[in-house]
Design goal:
With 131 residues, this protein is an alpha+beta fold. The chain contains 4 helices and 5 strands, in the order H-E-H-E-E-H-E-E-H.
């Protein structure tokens, strides 16, 4: 097994927060759940206003393998395009967290490249690790 194979199996925690000017025609969670591979790993965060401070009911949490990111980003991009809205994604791998913005102009392949690069950098040992 190569390092890239092992990395593709590492869990990644995503927090997706859509920002909407009006209620969407299709809720993001319902949109994602149309694909069976995401149903068990993508859910609403909290609910009923009793969740973490600053989180609305629109926040979605996912913990999934990095290998599933390309499909999830494509789904997110198609939802953003159809709803004419935007979203922010916080990606956490280990102790490192990165935030990416998704708008109607964001290319899902570029989004995946940004996330992959951020995760790669997070896994690299620091300059002091060579000692």
């Amino acid at each position: 097994m190569t390092d890239s194979d092992a990395a593709a199996r590492l869990p990644v925690r995503l927090t997706i927060n859509p920002r909407q000017r009006q209620p969407p025609a299709v809720e993001l969670l319902a949109w994602i759940h149309r694909r069976p591979e995401y149903r068990p790993v993508v859910r609403q965060a909290g609910g009923g206003g009793g969740g973490r401070p600053g989180f609305s009911d629109a926040v979605i949490i996912a913990v999934l393998a990095q290998a599933l990111l390309p499909g999830l980003f494509n789904l997110l991009q198609s939802w953003v395009d159809q709803q004419r809205t935007e979203a922010s994604i916080r990606i956490q791998a280990g102790d490192t967290e990165v935030e990416l913005q998704v708008t109607g102009r964001t290319d899902s392949a570029r989004l995946l490249a940004q996330a992959t690069e951020a995760l790669r950098v997070a896994r690299e040992p620091g300059p002091d690790a060579a000692d």
